[in-house]
Design brief:
heterodimer; A: alpha/beta; Glycerol-3-phosphate (1)-acyltransferase; 9 helices; 7 strands; B: mainly alpha; Non-ribosomal Peptide Synthetase Peptidyl Carrier Protein, Chain A
Chain lengths: ~220, ~80
């Protein structure tokens, strides 16, 4: 794996993001009362440098939940361009929390901004199901995350967010061990190999889901 | 690099870019439509772009994957970059 860059500790742009995190921390803690579990000691280790965090997506508050799961990191979220055009979108976009993509016509530029963010040592979160899923079963994962991880040579960390039954339910989440797919970066893996890794990551999420049932 | 060589290299990339492999490549011509005829998804297309950058040692501009309708469009783009 290439040398890991550390994200900037202070910058003007980060100030706004940190303002959101700090002011939202107390009300968020009271509302969500997060209960975070880790599958192993390795999973419990603090994540340093560039890392791609993936999670299931069952609610619009999942990005906020993720901020409590990995509270010690500034998280950048890959989101649909349409979200930036909503009322709240520009605020979060200005704070630098979002990496908007056009899902209907994914651009090379969007792909590069995600991989560059990871190479710059940032923690980028994406929801590989592609959209909020209200069903009982997780949807198929999109393989783009594997291409991103492969190009940036950064690991993928799976997180499972247990669906909340009520608005006042506790946030329960399970963090899994990082999955390092650096080996895929050597040469050009066939697309079938990328799909295999995608399936493996979905299996990991299912394991985390089973773990979450015990919380 | 001739247009025929570009097509051959592109066929090799497409062979890896989809699980159907040679079955897919047999159908490929300059007129083949990437989505409709070859059934490539946006992730397949992204894979193709990354591999094309490596093989031809070029860098794509900020283009959307849908901007390439046919194999010929990709070849034109590569030719333009190699010129």
């Amino acid at each position: 794996m290439s040398v890991q860059k550390k994200a900037k500790l202070f910058s003007l742009r980060c100030l706004m993001m940190d303002f959101i995190r700090v002011t939202g921390a107390l009300p968020g803690l009271v509302w969500l009362r997060p209960k975070i579990r880790y599958t192993s000691k390795q999973a419990k280790k603090r994540l340093r440098g560039g890392v791609l965090v993936i999670a299931n997506h069952t609610s619009f508050i999942d990005p906020a939940s993720m901020m409590f799961v990995l509270w010690y990191r500034r998280l950048y979220f890959v989101c649909h361009q349409a979200f930036v055009e909503t009322k709240a979108g520009p605020f979060f976009h200005a704070a630098g929390c979002l990496i908007p993509i056009n899902a209907d016509n994914f651009s090379v530029g969007s792909f590069r901004s995600i991989t560059e963010s990871l190479k710059d040592g940032k923690a980028v979160t994406l929801f590989p199901e592609g959209h909020v899923n209200k069903g009982d079963e997780m949807l198929e994962f999109k393989s783009g995350m594997v291409l991103i991880s492969m190009q940036s040579k950064r690991p993928i960390v799976p997180v499972y967010l247990k669906p909340r039954r009520h608005w006042y339910s506790r946030l329960k989440a399970v963090v899994g061990e990082p999955v390092d797919i650096t080996a895929l970066s050597e040469g050009r893996p066939a697309f079938s190999k990328i799909q295999e890794v995608t399936a493996l990551l979905r299996k990991r999420e299912e394991e985390l889901e089973a773990f979450a049932e015990t919380i | 690099m001739t247009r025929q060589e570009i097509l051959e290299n592109l066929k090799e990339i497409l062979m890896d870019a989809d699980e159907r492999g040679s079955e897919l490549v047999d159908k490929v011509s300059e007129q083949s439509r990437l989505t409709e005829d070859l059934g490539l998804s946006s992730v397949n297309m992204l894979y193709m772009i990354i591999a094309t950058e490596e093989v031809f040692d070029i860098r794509f501009d900020d283009v959307g994957v849908n901007e390439f309708q046919t194999v010929g469009d990709v070849m034109d783009y590569i030719e333009g970059k190699l010129a």
